[in-house]
Specification:
Layout lengths: L1 H20 L17 E6 L4 H13 L8 E6 L5 H9 L7 E5 L5 E6 L4 H12 L1
Parallel strand pairs: 1-2
Antiparallel strand pairs: 1-3, 3-4
């Protein structure tokens, strides 16, 4: 019985950890564009450390611009048609990737990897001008 308990814990603990980490933080992002505003498409992964660091930067910067810029968060591991289409459309090969799109639908910037707070804020200001 002791061996069964140990084996169960060996399989159960990682599963519970995965389930706890796999809940996306949707507090900032919306799922679909609304209105005629600039957009930031944020391609992320749940297991990406740079993505988690970038989430912290977004939580500091994005609230200032939330009424002017639409944030769309796309978890690349999702198996939806929308995700596959967007990953292919913007040639996403690395996470985190940010795609800055003007209100007219033109891609202004594409960045890959972590971005410092000042750089993100600078790109957001340029996007709303």
């Amino acid at each position: 019985m002791k061996n069964f308990s140990i084996i169960t814990l060996i399989f159960l603990v990682p599963l519970l950890a995965y389930l706890a980490l796999s809940k996306p933080d949707a507090s900032l992002a919306i799922k679909s564009p609304q209105g005629n505003k600039p957009q930031i498409m944020k391609f992320t992964s749940l297991m990406c450390l740079d993505c988690k660091k970038l989430d912290g930067v977004f939580k500091q910067v994005y609230p200032k611009y939330s009424d002017k810029i639409i944030l769309i968060e796309i978890p690349v591991q999702a198996e939806t048609e929308y995700t596959k289409t967007q990953v292919q459309k913007y040639n996403v090969t690395l996470v985190p990737t940010l795609v800055f799109i003007t209100a007219k639908g033109k891609k202004l910037y594409k960045t890959e990897g972590y971005m410092e707070k000042e750089a993100l804020e600078q790109k957001m200001k340029a996007l709303i001008k």
